[in-house]
């Protein structure tokens, strides 16, 4: 296990490496940010999206919470979203879950240990109940949780499309593209989730002006 002192030493080593390759690296980094991506993902320590996508600092504006939830009353998420969309004018919004997510498992197991966490995860429990029939047909427990993880990303995408910040942008004609991902932590690969755009448009979830 790495010790606290190790991470400070490793920071200095990284700074040295960066400067030896490009003496203006930090000068440029400090001048400002224009990230093309807003990433909304899980807090899990195994999900550093910069590492998985070989990205340098400045690529992703990030909001993370347990099991990548998007709620219309979460000021933290809304403020991040508004800043990303209105000020940074990101070109893409990515909502990402991951297999073997502790949050999904805790929601499935009904997580009775913590009141706060069980409240936070209650919407996932609702998704599980809503899709009971489909999920019950999957015999393997891990595969069933994988599917619940995918359904959770789809549900959060719906929430995102329904937020005024996003809808107003789409209706204005200049808007970020919205994507759903699963990070397959067992293989390290990113899986893109198919968003049923036309179906959601017909149900009014996605404004008709939105095009992929
Ligand atoms: Zn997770």
How would you summarize what this structure contains?
With 212 residues, this protein is α/β, with parallel strands linked by helices. It has helices at 4-21, 25-30, 49-52, 75-87, 102-108, 115-130, 132-136, 141-162, 164-172, 197-202; strands spanning 37-42, 60-65, 92-98, 177-184, 189-193. Bound molecules: zinc ion.
Structural overview:
- With 212 residues, the chain is an alpha/beta fold.
- It has two domains: 31 residues, no CATH class; 170 residues, Beta-carbonic Anhydrase, Chain A, CATH 3.40.1050.10.
- The protein has ten helices and five strands, in the order ααβαβαβαααααββα.
- β1, α3 and β2 form a beta-alpha-beta unit.
- α5 crosses α6.
- The longest helix has 22 residues.
- The radius of gyration is 19 Å and the shape is globular.
- The N and C termini lie far apart (44 Å).
- The relative contact order is 0.13.
- The model has no long low-confidence stretch (mean pLDDT 96).
Feature tags:
212 residues, alpha/beta, Beta-carbonic Anhydrase, Chain A, 5-stranded mixed beta sheet, 10 helices, 5 strands, 15% strand, binds zinc ion
Which helices and strands appear, and what pairs or packs with what?
Blueprint: H1 4-21, H2 25-30, E1 37-42, H3 49-52, E2 60-65, H4 75-87, E3 92-98, H5 102-108, H6 115-130, H7 132-136, H8 141-162, H9 164-172, E4 177-184, E5 189-193, H10 197-202
Parallel strand pairs: 1-2, 1-3, 3-4
Antiparallel strand pairs: 4-5
Helix pairs in contact: 5-6
Bound molecules: zinc ion.
């Amino acid at each position: 296990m790495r010790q606290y002192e190790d991470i400070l030493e490793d920071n200095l080593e990284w700074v040295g490496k960066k400067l030896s390759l490009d003496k203006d690296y930090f000068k440029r980094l400090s001048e400002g940010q224009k990230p093309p991506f807003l990433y909304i993902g899980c807090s899990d320590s195994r999900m550093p999206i910069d590492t998985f996508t070989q990205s340098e600092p400045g690529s992703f504006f990030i909001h993370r919470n347990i099991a990548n939830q998007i709620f219309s009353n979460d000021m933290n998420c809304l403020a991040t979203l508004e800043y990303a969309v209105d000020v940074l004018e990101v070109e893409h919004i990515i909502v990402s879950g991951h297999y073997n997510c502790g949050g999904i498992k805790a929601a499935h197991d009904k997580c009775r240990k913590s009141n706060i966490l069980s409240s936070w995860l209650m919407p996932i429990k609702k998704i599980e109940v809503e899709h009971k029939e489909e999920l019950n047909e999957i015999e393997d427990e891990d595969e069933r949780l994988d599917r619940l993880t995918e359904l959770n990303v789809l549900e959060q995408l719906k929430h995102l499309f329904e937020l005024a910040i996003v809808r107003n942008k789409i209706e204005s004609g200049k808007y970020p593209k919205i994507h759903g991902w699963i990070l397959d932590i067992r293989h390290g690969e990113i899986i893109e989730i198919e968003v049923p755009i036309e179906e959601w448009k017909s149900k009014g979830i996605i404004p008709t002006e939105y095009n992929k």
